[in-house]
Amino acid sequence: MKSLGSIRRDFAPWIDPASSPFLRFEDVTKRFGDFEAVDDLSLSIFESEFFALLGPSGCGKSTLLRMLAGFEMPTSGRIILDGEDMAGIPPYRRPVNMMFQSYALFPHMSVAKNIAFGLKQERMAKGEISDRVQQVLKLVKLEDYAKRKPDQLSGGQRQRVALARSLAKRPKVLLLDEPLGALDKKLREETQFELADLQHQLHTTFIMVTHDQEEAMTLADRIAVMDKGRILQVAPPAEIYEAPKSRFVADFVGNVNVFDGTVRSATGGRVTIETTGGFDIVAERDVGVEVGQRVSYVLRPEKLKIAAEPISGPNVMEGEVWDIAYFGPVTSFHIRLDTGAIVKVAMVNATRQSPLQLTWHDRAFVTFDEDAGLVVTQ
Amino acid sequence: MGWRLSKFNVVSMVFGFSFLYLPIVLLVVYSFNASRLVTVWSGFSTVWYRELWNNRGLLDAAWVTLRVGVLSASVATVLGTMAAIALARYKRFTGRTLMTGMVYAPLVMPEVITGLSLLLFFVAVDFDRGFWTVTLAHISFTMCFVTVVVQSRLISFDRSLEDAAMDLGATPTVTFFQITLPLIWPAVAAGWMLAFTLSLDDLVIASFTTGPGATTLPMKIYSQVRLGVTPEINAVCTILIAIVSVGVVIATLLNKRRLVRQARNERLAAEG
User: Fold this and answer.
1) How many CB atoms lie under 10 A from the CB of residue A244?
2) Does the keyword Secreted apply (chain A) (predicted)?
């Protein structure tokens, strides 16, 4: 299959056999009573990588982050950072810093004191501390706010103070717990780019926990999709999106149509799937499947083409326009097949006036190329 | 539409406040009475305050009370805060229920029983009764009040602040003194005030546990009143009321200032 790389074209240490990971989780398990938060998980993260842990709430991603910060101890397994086993090292002696979801700014200290707090613990000289505080304040563009108290700042400014404070000690790894979660949409988009710039500038390893797939996609070099304490897939954003390994990953990241079925034939580079909806799908074969095997075909809405006139050829479905949602850049159609199944189609509005005049309850025809979707076996 | 009081409201308010404050007003007024007779007004005078200054017995009692109050409130605050932290932070440890019960029991225990049991204990261990036994007794019964006040503050405390401090390299001790304590300080101070007030005004437990040379002010007042109320007692009580009133006024002003500052900060934050 075609390779789907990372955003940074020349940065891909995970495919380079000569590079060794900076941070390793080795068979890490964490139980709280009977509940298994993290289940025998292994993961390697490389130096100056921006890594995202993505998953629904309760999938264990925050527990993983808290184990790295030292607030939780693994029930079994090892965490090795820069060659050093983290077992038994308390949070205040670890070379990692965390930016908390609630920001956790000390309300009784000014912005400058908040940032200096960590440096004071290192017994750094006074002059050096104030230089470093100035430096990070400049980094987050808050030089004029040093004397303010946290409750005199807006949400966006607080977020930047929290970021500055966690960067001030120059940690080996910066941990970000839902860093943009508390910001409104517009501010979140701006801050996303700032965060990415900052990371490229500093070359610090960033590990972010998020439940927001868009956030993970925009920021991360690689994403680990997690569910129920396990990692389902680790890959760059484009690969997660275009080549998900399982139904869960496909479904969790972005919008998707899933067709369940059985393999009828698998010859050469092609596979024919008889779907439970009664129609056949002819697809490019990129995973090993056997005849009779139960598989799913996952197909992103924007990979489908929609027409008002009948289309000939394989992979054509016919149905009724059930719903139309106009988003501006794209229009989303829900087509109800005769079997009752709904197929989602996204049409890019490349021209101002759409040549396609479809409205509610019209008959519509939907088609896709053989390599438009993906056969998944899990 | 303006807010007006109905006749019923006015009458009930007058009666209510009279019931609460008239006795106190009378006490204050009669402390400035020139006559020795408590119930006969014969002109304004500060003679009883001067008399008070020469009454060694009352002054000694006040001094004992102050020392007992400050010392017992301080120790009770330290112990009570520690208990509050244990109860608020550690949700599961052996004997937690027992500890909760034992910490809170003095809250509802009749004072006579507390006093008597402490007396029996001090006699059993052959502890000479006096200043120290009263202080110990006051520590033991005021501690739980501090615990209640501090624990309620800790429940709303954002623990990620402590996590953040440790993450930034602060040891648990540094975290406690530089982050936790400054933030729960108002509750700790309120706990101290409460403990001090309770100690100041305790008669029953002090009577049981005291010994020669350690007569507290409430005990002194009580014993003198049995021989008849003198205007000197009125003067002492007026001073006590003045101290308490000043405390309340200061607390109100501080609170008001905090609210004003909070409103200003919010405005500043909104302006960016």
Assistant:
1) 25
2) no
Kindly list the distances between the CA atom of residue A186 and the CA atoms of A100, B76, B272, in Å, as whole numbers in the listed order. Answer: 21, 52, 16
- pLDDT per residue over B21-56, tens digit each? 998 898 888 888 888 777 788 888 888 888 888 888
Question: With an 8 Å Cβ cutoff, are B272 and A154 in contact?
Answer: yes
Helix (H, G, I), strand (E, B) or coil at B201: helix
Say how far apart CA A278 and CA A295 lie, in whole Å: 15
Burial class (CB in 10 A: 0-12, 13-18, 19+), A320: middle
The alpha helices in chain A, defined as continuous H runs, are 61-69, 111-121, 126-139, 155-167, 185-202, 213-219, 237-242, 247-252
Place of tokens 């000197």: B232
Phi, psi of A176 (to 5 degrees): -120, 115
Sheet with A342-348: strands ordered across: A305-307, A363-367, A316-326, A330-337, A342-348
Terminal Cα-to-Cα distance of chain B (whole angstroms)? 38
Contact A193, A216 (CB under 8 A): no
Neighbours of A110 (CB within 10 A): 17
CA distance B184 to B179: 9
Q: Would you call B158 and A90 a contact, using CB atoms and an 8 Å cutoff?
A: no
Q: Is A219 exposed, middle or buried (0-12, 13-18, 19+ CB in 10 A)?
A: buried
pLDDT band at A7 (very low <50, low <70, confident <90, very high): low
CB under 8 Å to B152, separation ≥6 — which residues?
B187
Helices (H), A225-330: 237-242, 247-252
Query: Which helix H or strand E contains B251, and what residues bound it?
Result: helix B231-271
Distance from CA of A181 to the nearest CA of B (A): 16
ipTM of this complex prediction, to 2 decimal places: 0.83
Interchain contact, B269 vs A117, CB within 8 Å: no
User: Do the Cβ atoms of B184 and B150 come closer than 8 Å?
Assistant: yes
Interface test with A, best of B156, B166, B168, B262 (most A CBs within 10 A): B168
Residue of B nearest to A115 (CA): B168
Residues linked to residue A227 through DSSP beta bridges, in sequence order: A230
pTM of the predicted structure, to 2 decimals: 0.81
For residue range B73-114, what is the model confidence (pLDDT) as tens digits?
Answer: 999 999 999 999 988 888 778 888 888 888 888 888 899 999
CA separation for the pair A104, A159 (Å, rounded): 10
Which of the residues A106, A113, A160, A170 would you substitute to probe the B interface, choosing the one with the greatest number of B C-beta atoms within 10 Å?
Answer: A106
Contact at 8 Å (CB) between A308 and A358?
yes
Domains of chain A and CATH, by start:
13-95+171-251 (3.40.50.300), 255-376 (2.40.50.140)
**Any CB–CB contact under 8 A between A169 and chain B?**
yes
What residues 80-139 of chain A have any CB closer than 8 A to a CB of chain B?
Answer: 90-93, 96-98, 100-102, 104-108, 117-118, 121-122
Q: CA of B65 to nearest chain A CA: how many angstroms apart?
A: 35
Considering only CB atoms, which chain A residues are within 8 Å of B181? none
Average pLDDT, rounded, for chain B:
89
User: Exposed, middle or buried: residue A235 (CB in 10 Å: 0-12, 13-18, 19+)?
Assistant: buried
